[in-house]
Predict the 3D structure of the following.
Amino acid sequence: MGIIVRDHSTNEILLLLKGADAVMTSIVVYSDWLQEQCDTMARDGLRTLVVAKKTLTEHQYLDFESRYNQAKCAMTDRNTKISAVLGHLQKDMELLCLTGVEDRLQDGVAKTLKGLQDAGIRLWMLTGDKLETAISIAKSSQLVNKLQEFYIFQSITNRTEAHLELNNFSKKDDCPLIIRGEDLELVMKFYSTEFVELAGQCPAVVCCRCSPTQKAEVVKLIQNRTGKRTCAVGDGGNDVSMIQSADVGVGIVGKEGQQASLAADFSILQF
């Protein structure tokens, strides 16, 4: 997410950009410090955000504005053309800072999750957080027991690797699964039935680095492959598609606004 601002006192034009480290690493000038600090913060359970800037000349700005407006008026492949114009501008940026925010759990979350598990309900945590942050939150919410061994799905790039990794995972018995969004996308493309069958037997599943679209796709996949009823609970705008895809959508009114609660079947104040 970015914004272009002009300082009237100096007439300087700045592009300010914020985003997840996975995306921003390729946008900012390379820095060892960034990845090291991101990993450190994530292990502490903090949600990280990278902020960068770029100074634009008057000519650069006018050229961008012209091409951006043309892309927005395109009748075909509009999104692709807009992305290409933005991509041309959003590169070789200067790293400004890294922020880490504690995402505190509400009271009684661990107790509630334990009650749901005891009732025989399978729990999946779908989050956009980094792997380390997701693991930390899964443990603090007691979705995964702190002493319990869990299986981290290894990074895959093609169908063969996906098949091998699924075979490795199938050998693990009664073990919570943690999988990244990009790996989940490949597995769902080639082996959706096998994946849901195996993951459905896990005591818990954590999908990290998930996009809002992926969250909804996971819910639909579970519905289609298992025939079970699904309930999706979320508190942010990025949970809306997931909440609407589920048989029962529950939105929590929180610090992230009311988008989730307005889109849900049920609105609650606390998890």
